[in-house]
Amino acid sequence: MINSSVDFQGVLEEIEDEVRPFFGQGKNADYIPALSDVPGHKFAMAVQTVDGETFMIGDAEENFSIQSISKLFTLMQVLGLEDVDIWSRVGREPSGTAFNSLVQLEYEKGIPRNPFINAGAIVVTDILASRSADPSRRIDDYYRMLSGNPANKVDEVVALSEQEHGYRNAALANLMRSFDNIETPIPDLLDVYFRQCALTTSCVDLAKAALPLVCGGYSPIAQSQVLSGRDTKRINALLLTCGLYDAVGSFAYKVGLPAKSGVGGGIVAVLPKHFSIAVWSPELDASGNSLVGSKALELFTTKTDLSIF
Amino acid sequence: MINSSVDFQGVLEEIEDEVRPFFGQGKNADYIPALSDVPGHKFAMAVQTVDGETFMIGDAEENFSIQSISKLFTLMQVLGLEDVDIWSRVGREPSGTAFNSLVQLEYEKGIPRNPFINAGAIVVTDILASRSADPSRRIDDYYRMLSGNPANKVDEVVALSEQEHGYRNAALANLMRSFDNIETPIPDLLDVYFRQCALTTSCVDLAKAALPLVCGGYSPIAQSQVLSGRDTKRINALLLTCGLYDAVGSFAYKVGLPAKSGVGGGIVAVLPKHFSIAVWSPELDASGNSLVGSKALELFTTKTDLSIF
Amino acid sequence: MINSSVDFQGVLEEIEDEVRPFFGQGKNADYIPALSDVPGHKFAMAVQTVDGETFMIGDAEENFSIQSISKLFTLMQVLGLEDVDIWSRVGREPSGTAFNSLVQLEYEKGIPRNPFINAGAIVVTDILASRSADPSRRIDDYYRMLSGNPANKVDEVVALSEQEHGYRNAALANLMRSFDNIETPIPDLLDVYFRQCALTTSCVDLAKAALPLVCGGYSPIAQSQVLSGRDTKRINALLLTCGLYDAVGSFAYKVGLPAKSGVGGGIVAVLPKHFSIAVWSPELDASGNSLVGSKALELFTTKTDLSIF
Amino acid sequence: MINSSVDFQGVLEEIEDEVRPFFGQGKNADYIPALSDVPGHKFAMAVQTVDGETFMIGDAEENFSIQSISKLFTLMQVLGLEDVDIWSRVGREPSGTAFNSLVQLEYEKGIPRNPFINAGAIVVTDILASRSADPSRRIDDYYRMLSGNPANKVDEVVALSEQEHGYRNAALANLMRSFDNIETPIPDLLDVYFRQCALTTSCVDLAKAALPLVCGGYSPIAQSQVLSGRDTKRINALLLTCGLYDAVGSFAYKVGLPAKSGVGGGIVAVLPKHFSIAVWSPELDASGNSLVGSKALELFTTKTDLSIF
User: Fold this and answer.
1) Which of A73, B91, B307, D279 is 20 to 30 A from A304, comparing alpha carbons?
2) Is there a domain that residue A103 lies in?
3) Which of D11, D47, D71, D276 does the annotation list as catalytic?
4) Does D258 sit within 8 Å of A238, measured CB to CB?
5) Strand order, beta sheet including B266-271
6) C-alpha closest to that of B273 among B222, B223, B207, B214
7) pLDDT tens-digit profile of D230-281?
C-alpha cells in the first residue's frame, strides 16, 4: 500500500506552518455577510485514506458553508439514479470563461458546458427537483448519508442571503427555461439550489463524503455502492477538467488531483484508490478558489509525490 | 409645403398592388397563438400629414398587436418626465446583434445598448413602473392620449401568452437586476412590460400617435407639447440607428426614415416636419420585421422621393 | 433656399469661440508619431453649400491625414463602377462593437458588417485593387478629382508608419482571406490600404469632395455625375448608421448628420440638398472621433437648426 | 509492476476487431489534398512500456502527418530550455471553444489560453524561432532524438499545402503581434510552424518520443533527462485539460489519459510511470480528433483498467 509509507500527519503539520505567509493575500467572498464575516485566517485540513484512517489539522471539525462543492454531491446523486439521461442536458467540457457567464449558454442553446458551472448545477438540481416531493431534504439526506454526520444542516440565514443576491442565477435559469432545459418552476428550483449551497459541513465531513470517488463508487461510511465504477472514473475526469471554475488548468498543473471548490473557502480533492482530502480557508484568489487552500493542496502533492500525474 | 405636391392616396393604392407578389414570403410570429393565428395576408397603411390630412388603404382601422412599437411610446413618455436620467441606465448605440442577445448586456455590465432592444425597453418600463402606482394604466392612457382613440386596450389573452413565453425577458431583467439596473420587483415589472406589448392599435392610431415626432414634440391629437424639440430630434435619430432590430442599416439604406417595428407586423415611420406613416402586414422577414411592410415603405419613399436622405 | 437665411460664417466664428474650453479633454492618436506629433489644439472648419459658396474658419486649407475618411471615398468609387456586387461581400449594419474587432467577423464567416469598419474598408479596397494595375494611384486620382486639388498626396512617412503598426489589419485581411473574401495578395492589398489612409487633405478639400452626397451624386467640382441618386441616398444612410465607429448612435443623437470620421481628427458631414461640412481637430475622444470636432458639429446643427431630423 | 499482468498484445488485437464498425463514421481532414487522400481505413497502434517493451498492431511503422501533435514536442523542447518564461506569454487553461477561434485571443489581449491551441503553439514556436538560426532543423532534430528514428522528416508537399491554406494561422499570428506577443517576422515564423506540422512519423515513433512523459522526464531512447520531473507532471496535466481541442472533457471522461491529437489522425497518450500509446486512423470526428483512434483508446483503458482516474 503506497499510502502506508507516507507520514500524512507530519505533512499536514508542515503545511500548516508553510501556508502562514499566504494569509491576507486573498479575500473572503463578500456578496453575502454570512461569508464575508467568517474570520479570514481560519485553516483546516483533513485526509481520509482508503484504509479508513483520518488525519487532520486545524479546525477540521468546524462547520463552514459548502457552497459550490454541493454541485459535486448533487451530480453524484443524479448519476446514482436510474433512467436519467443527464448528458443530453449538460455538457462535459470546460467552460473557458468566468463561471457564471451567460455568453456560452446562449450560443449553445441553453445547454450548459458542464455540471460544475452554475448553469449546469442548476440543471442537475432540476433533475432532482422534478423527481421528488421534498428535493431539499433529499439532497441534505444524501450528503448526511455520505458524511455520516447528521449535523450537516442548511444554514437558513445563508440560504436567505443567497436568494436575495441570486439574480444572476435566476437569469441563468430563465435563459435555460427559454430553451426548454428547465422543468421545475423557477422560484421553487432556485429555492432548492440556494439551500443546497447553504449546507454546512466540515473538512472531516467533506473528506468522508468524497470517499466514493476514491473507492470505485463505494461509500465506506454509508456502507453502500452509491456509484458504478465507470461513473466514478467519469466524475473524477470531470472534476479534473471542470471542477475549479476558470482555474482548472492551473490547478491540474500545480496540484494534479480531481477537486471541487466553493466560495466558502472549501476544496475537496481525491486520489483514486488512495485518499480524499479536504481543506478550508476562507480567503479566495481571483478565480474564486481558496487561495491558501490551493497552496496547501499544492504543497501536499509536492511533499507526498502523490498525484494522478 | 412639399407634401401638397404628392398624391399620397394614389401612391398608397399603387403600393397595395405592387406588394401583392411578396405575400407568403415571410412568416407570422409563431411563439404565441394570438400572433400566429392572424391572417398572414392582412395589409394596411395610413399616412398622417403635418397638415392634418389622413390617407389610408386596406384595413387601416383594424386593430393588431402593437408589440415592440410600444417601446417607442414608453420612451417618449419617460423623456417627457422631469428629473429622469435615463441615459445613465441605457445606451444610445445600435446593438449589432440579434435583438434579445444577452451577450453584450453581460459585457457591458447590465447597461443595454439602446432603449429599443428588449433589455433597454425593460429599463424604460422600470423607470415608469418605479414612479407610478398603476404603471400599466399610465402607459395605456399615454398612448390613448396620443392616438385619440380610447379603444386602444390591452389584449388580455396576448398579455397572458407573452407571460408564458417570456423566459428570455425574465433572464434579461434578472441579469440587469444583478447589475443593479432594475428597481421594480421583477414579476411586477414583467407584467407591466408584457401588457404594454399586448396593446391593440390600428395603422390610423399609430400614425396619429407618432405625430409628435413629426411636429417637433407637439401632439395635434392631444393638443399638447409632449416632448421638447431637442428630445424629438434625438428620438428620431435613435429610431434611425436602433429602431429595426438587426436590420437598421438595411432599412435606413432602403427606406431612409426613422421607424419602429413590432413582431405583430406593424411598422411606424416618420419624416420630420412632413408626415407619419404606419403599415401593417403580419408576415415577418428573418430580422423580425414585417416583410411586406418594409417593402411597402421602401416603395413609398422611392415613389414620393421623400426621405431624410 | 433654406441655406440663404443662415449666416454660416457667423456661426463658424461663434463655434470657434465656444469649443475652446474643450481643448485638452481628448488625446491625439498615438500609435504613430506622424499623428501624435500634430499640435493638439489645431482647429478648422469649412462649409461648402449646394449653391457653390465656401465658408471657413481656422486652418481650413492646412493638410492633415485623411485616415478612415478615405473609406467613404473608396466606397463611392466602387459604387461608381459597373458590374460590382459589393453587398454580397460586405454588410450594411452597424457593428455594435469597437471598430476593429475580429469577433463579429469570425462569427459572420468573414463578411464584415459594413464598409466603414476596417475589415469592410479592406474588402472595398480589395475590389479596387483587383481591378486595376495601379490601385493606389487610381484611389488618389479619384479623390483629387472630387476635391479639385492636385496637391492631395500620400504622406509617405505616414504610409510607412501605418505599415509598421498594421498587424491588426493584417489579421483582419488574413481572416477574411481564410473565408475567401479577399482576392488580392495580402501584402499588396495592405500596401494600397495603408496608402489610402495616408492621403493628406484639408477641410476645404474634404467639404468639396463630399459634395456628390449633397447633390444627388453630382460633383460640381468634377462637373460629373459620379454616383446614381439612389446610391447617394444609400451612402448617406450608411454614414448615419455606421460612419462613426462605436458612436454612431450618440452622434446621430447629438449632431443628426451623415458623417465619417478619421483618427487624424477630421470629420466630414453632409446635409443632403444643402451643404457639406468638414472639421479638423486632432484630439480624439474615447470612441476615436475628434472630440472638439464632434462638439463643433453639434453646435453647428443646434445653432442653424439644420439636420436631417 | 502493474503492467506485467496485462496482455497488451492481446488487448490491441481485440481492439483491432472491435473498432471495425466505426470506420466510415468520421471524415479525413479535407483542407489539403495530402491529408484527404490518405486511405481512411488505415489503423495502427503502438504501446511502449516503461520496461522497454513495444507492442503494436496494424501499420504501426508506417508514416503519417504529425500535425498538431508536434505542439507537444515543441512545448517539451521549450520547457527544456533555460531562462524561458513561457507562462507569461501563454496561459494554461482550456479554451472552451473551437481550437482556432480568435475571439478569446482578442478578449485576452493576445495571450493564448494554452500551448495546444494553434495560437499558443505559434507562440511556443516563436520562442524557439527567436533563439535559433535554423529553428526548423532544431525542431526536427529534437523529435528525431526522442523517437530514435532519423527518418522522421518534413513532408515538403504537406508543408507547402499548409502554407497555402494557413490564412487563419496568419490572422492569429498578426493579431498576437499587434499585442506584442510575437517576435519573429511572421512569414518566417509561419514557415517554421507549418514545417513542424508537416513532420512525418509512425505510431511506434510517437510512442517512443512520448516516453519522457512516462519516465519522469527521462528519455530512454535518447538516454537523457530532457525535462524536470516537475515539468513532466505539468505537461501531463496540460495535456489532460487542453490536449484534445474542444473535446478534452469528453476524452478525459471516456479515456482518462493525458493525450494529444492531430488532424492527421494520430493521437498519443500516456499513463505516467506505466506506458505511452499511439494510435493512427485518419477519419476525424466533429471535434477534429481521430474518431476510431479515440474509440480505440477508450477500449484500451476500459479493457486494461489502466487510466489516471
Assistant:
1) A73
2) yes
3) D71
4) no
5) B54-58, B44-49, B275-280, B266-271, B259-261
6) B214
7) 999 999 999 999 999 888 888 999 999 999 999 999 999 999 999 999 999 9
Weakest mean pLDDT among A128-132, B114-118, D98-102: D98-102
Active site residue D84: no
pLDDT-based confidence at residue A98 (cuts at 50, 70, 90): low
Average pLDDT for residues A54-83, to the nearest whole number? Answer: 96
> pLDDT at position A1, please?
41
- CA of D239, closest CA in chain A: separation in Å? 10
Any idea what the CATH number is for the domain that residue B192 is in?
3.40.710.10
Dist CA D195 CA D155 (whole Å):
8
Is the Cβ–Cβ distance between B204 and B45 less than 8 Å? no
Average pLDDT over residues D33-61: 96
Overall domain count for chain B: 1
Catalytic residue annotation of C = 68, 71, 193, 245, 263
* ipTM (interface predicted TM): 0.89
C102, C87, C71: which is closest to C262 by C-alpha? C71
DSSP letter at A15? Answer: H
Cβ atoms within 10 Å, residue D207: 28
Q: Does any domain span residue B309?
A: no
Whether residue A65 contacts residue A198, with contact meaning beta carbons closer than 8 Å, is answered with yes
User: Which residue from A123, A55, A116, A78 is spatially nearest to A261, judged by alpha carbons?
Assistant: A116
Q: Which residue has the cell 471548490?
A: A261
The residue from A71, A208, A260, A295 that is catalytic is: A71
- CA distances from residue C72 to A298, C28, C66, C235 in whole angstroms, order as listed: 58, 22, 11, 8
- Which member of C240, C252, C309 has the closest CB to residue B272? C309
**C-alpha C45: how far from chain center:** 15
Helical H runs in chain C? 8-18, 33-36, 70-79, 103-107, 118-129, 135-147, 156-164, 167-178, 186-197, 203-209, 211-214, 229-242, 248-254, 291-304
Q: Provide the grid cell at C128.
A: 479596387
Cβ contacts of D170 within 8 Å, gap of 6 or more: C170, C171, C174, C186, D186, D190
Any CB–CB contact under 8 A between C180 and chain D? no
Residue C309 placed within a domain: no
Q: How far is C1 from chain B (nearest CA, A)?
A: 13
Residue B68 labelled as part of a binding site: yes
Residue A309 belongs to some domain of the structure:
no
Report residue B4's pLDDT band, with 50, 70 and 90 as the boundaries: low
Give tens-digit pLDDT for B177-224.
999 999 999 999 999 999 999 999 999 999 999 999 999 999 999 999
Q: CA D254 to CA D245: how far, in whole Å?
A: 15
Contacts of B196 (CB under 8 A, 6+ apart): B66, B70, B74, B125, B136, B139, B140
Tell me if C96 and B94 make a contact (CB, 8 A cut-off): yes
Count of A-B CB contacts under 8 Å: 47
Residue to substitute from B240, B274, B285, interface C, most C β-carbons within 10 A: B240
Strands B200-201 and B64-65: antiparallel
B270 close to B81: Cβ distance less than 8 angstroms: no
Most C-contacting residue of D164, D174, D176, D193 (CB-CB within 10 A), to test interface: D174
**Burial profile B123-151: b = 16 or more Cβ within 10 angstroms, e = fewer:** bbbbbbbeeeeebbebbbebbbbbbbbee
Joined together, the cell numbers standing for residue C72 give 467613404
A101: Cα within 13 Å, side-chain hemisphere: 19
Please tell me the total number of residues recorded for chain D in this structure: 309
pLDDT of residue A293: 98
Domain holding D71, by residue range, is: 2-304
Q: Annotation-wise, does A202 bind a ligand?
A: no
Q: What is the pLDDT of residues C27-63, one digit of tens each?
A: 999 988 889 999 999 999 999 999 999 999 999 999 9
Separation of alpha carbons D286 and D280, rounded Å: 17
Helix (H) or strand (E) holding D174: helix D167-178
